Amino acid sequence: MSPDELHELSLEQAPSKKKKITLEKFLQQFNTLDMNSYGSWPLSVKITCWIFIFFAVLVLGYFVAIQPKLQAIDNAQAQESNLLNEFREKDSKLRNLQQYQLQLQEMQANFNQQLEQLPKETEIPSLVEDINLTGVNSGLKFKNIRLEDEVKQEIFIEQPITIEATGDYHAFGAFVSSIAALPRIVTMHDFVVDAAPIKDGKSDIPVLNYSIKAKTYRYMGAVENQNNSDPQVINGESQINASDSRNVHIPSIKKSKRK
């Protein structure tokens, strides 16, 4: 290696050695400090202590004063969000309150209209007469129309009506359509159909025997609701008398059939 190269290498290594010596001296200054004579401390040591104290105060101030405030702000923002959501929900309900009231009135009107279609107890015989006239006008010949025992449900009373009649398909279809058009609610259940014996061969349309259970319903009043738990009201003498009174109307129905 030439002398010039050795000289350049020594120049490159000189600053790092100087820095190393400076750092060692800086650390030695901390070991030789006089705690009772702050004014005699080197300037570099004073600056280092000031910087350390400054960051220590910052950290301590953050945990003591700033962090609780930030936590309180976060809690307040969360509470604000909840209150805003609650306000929006209540505001939406308030805006739709009038619409809800109109819907409630409409539902109440529909409910009252449905109740009006349920026959009262005194209207059951006239309903049976309407069923009889409907069947006669449709071309059916009734064998029997019988009121069965009432069945009490939770809020209404079910009145089964057993109907036995004879007629062709067209007469039966017209009868069912006419029953659906009655102002009172009448439902049809338990259809039993069988062929009737042919008495003459004048018509090619088969005649059938029909057995149907129709059901009508009436609203249970407050008094009946209170007595609903009393079994004697359902199966007692009062029902037997009502059944007897129902049978009185059967002859009048058969007379209508003869007309």
Commentary on this structure:
- A hairpin with a 3-residue loop joins strand 2 and strand 3.
- The chain folds into 2 domains: 97 residues, no CATH class; 138 residues, Alpha-Beta Plaits (2-Layer Sandwich).
- It is built from 7 helices and 5 strands; from the N terminus they run H-H-H-E-E-E-H-E-E-H-H-H.
- The N and C termini lie far apart (146 Å).
- The C terminus is likely disordered.
- It is α+β, with helices and mostly antiparallel strands.
Task: List the defining traits of the structure above.
63% helix; PilO; Pilus assembly protein PilO; Transl_elong_EF1B/ribsomal_bS6; 259 residues; alpha+beta; 7 helices; Alpha-Beta Plaits
Query: What portion of the residues fall into strands of 2 or more residues?
Result: 15-25%
Q: Regions with pLDDT < 50 over 5+ consecutive residues?
A: 16-21, 229-259
Tell me about the largest β-sheet.
5 strands, antiparallel
Number of strands: 5
The CATH topology of the largest domain turns out to be Alpha-Beta Plaits
Helix content class: 55-70%
Structural classification = alpha+beta
Level-1 CATH class name of the largest domain? Alpha Beta
Order of helices and strands: HHHEEEHEEHHH
The 3D shape can be described as rod-shaped
Q: Return the domain count.
A: 2
* Helix run count: 7
